[in-house]
Design a protein that fits this description.
The protein is an alpha+beta fold and 202 residues long. The protein has 7 helices and 4 strands; from the N terminus they run E-H-E-H-E-E-H-H-H-H-H. It binds glutathione (GSH).
């Protein structure tokens, strides 16, 4: 991170994980200094006694605050870091809409797209051995996003919010699993990548 402030936040994350990158994107966007501890899932670094003492669920991302408190779950961490900033709508209803997308992301989007990508790219599971409903669930999630974006540039309130950051994390990796991004989703991914100063993957 380019900052002259000393890090007070430690992020335990795996760089291949969209859930972990969400936390990085928010910290970078808000100029929050942090130390990144690379914690590889594939190398089972989330299964060590030291890591399980931090998060008994054995999952990244995890953050440790300056005072030693620990928080897990990507969306909870994003909400904590971004509390009171411009990437959370101030209007009550818009904020509730942002939560709506965050919950949808965890239940219907991440569980399809992140899983298909991980099994395809990292576990190298052949298509014929993949759970048959997985790819249709990914396509349905992308189509739902495309239809929402027909009327808008961002998911909520025409501003970059945590909804966009949560959703872009795995959507931009979807082509790695052979998924084709619908046109408006592809444009939105580019827009959010620009906002977050990320390279265009597509
Ligand atoms: N709902 C959690 C999911 C976290 C998660 O699934 N993390 C994965 C990496 S993306 C992990 O640590 N997997 C290791 C494991 O479950 O053993 C979040 O959003 O943080």
């Amino acid at each position: 991170m380019m900052t002259d402030q000393a890090p007070t936040l430690t992020i335990y994350g795996d760089s291949i994980s969209g859930n972990c990158l969400k936390v990085k994107f928010v910290a970078d966007r808000l100029g929050i200094p942090y130390d990144w501890i690379e914690t590889s899932v594939l190398q089972q670094r989330t299964r060590t006694a030291e890591f399980l003492a931090l998060n008994p669920a054995g999952q990244v991302p995890v953050v440790k605050l300056a005072d030693g408190r620990v928080l897990s779950q990507s969306n909870a961490i994003m909400l904590y870091l971004a509390d009171g900033t411009k990437i959370i709508p101030t209007d009550d209803f818009a904020r509730a809409q942002m939560y709506q997308w965050l919950f949808w992301e965890q239940y219907s989007h991440e569980t399809a797209i992140a899983v298909l990508r991980f099994r395809t790219v990292y576990l190298k599971i052949p298509v014929e051995q993949m759970e048959p409903s997985l790819r249709p669930r990914c396509i349905a999630a992308l189509e739902l996003m495309d239809s929402h974006l027909a009327q808008r540039h961002y998911f909520v309130d025409e501003m970059l919010s945590l909804a966009d950051i949560a959703l872009v994390a795995y959507t931009r990796f979807a082509p790695e699993a052979g998924l084709v991004l619908p046109p408006r989703v592809a444009q939105w991914v580019h827009r959010v990548e620009d906002d977050l100063k990320l390279e265009h993957l597509g």
